[in-house]
Amino acid sequence: MVLHMSFIWCHGTECHTYHTQDRVRGSKGSKVLRTRKVKQHTDRAWYERDQVYNYFCSQGCLHNFIKTHLQRIVALDPRAEPLEKPINDPEKTEYGSTRITERGVDTITE
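The chain above was modelled as a monomer; its predicted structure follows.
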């Protein structure tokens, strides 16, 4: 079985500024900090193209990207109205109270 794996560079805006051993590149006197590579397991059954960690090496890099580009991200799909999801109306029972859940109505007996 031959596995094909590709890499892309982390999209974190500050990834290249974190001083860790795996980011240091170059020979003595001309060292640099380099952005990390992110593995792309495109040939695996569990691979999903739209997962954020296919583009970022860590949560820190993901959050720095969001913080830097938040206004542009929100501008892609602005929300002027709230979202709503219909649910079943709760009904009172003689044994206790009711509550609304995502699946419908659960009865609480006391």
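The CA atoms of residues 66 and 74 lie 10 Å apart.
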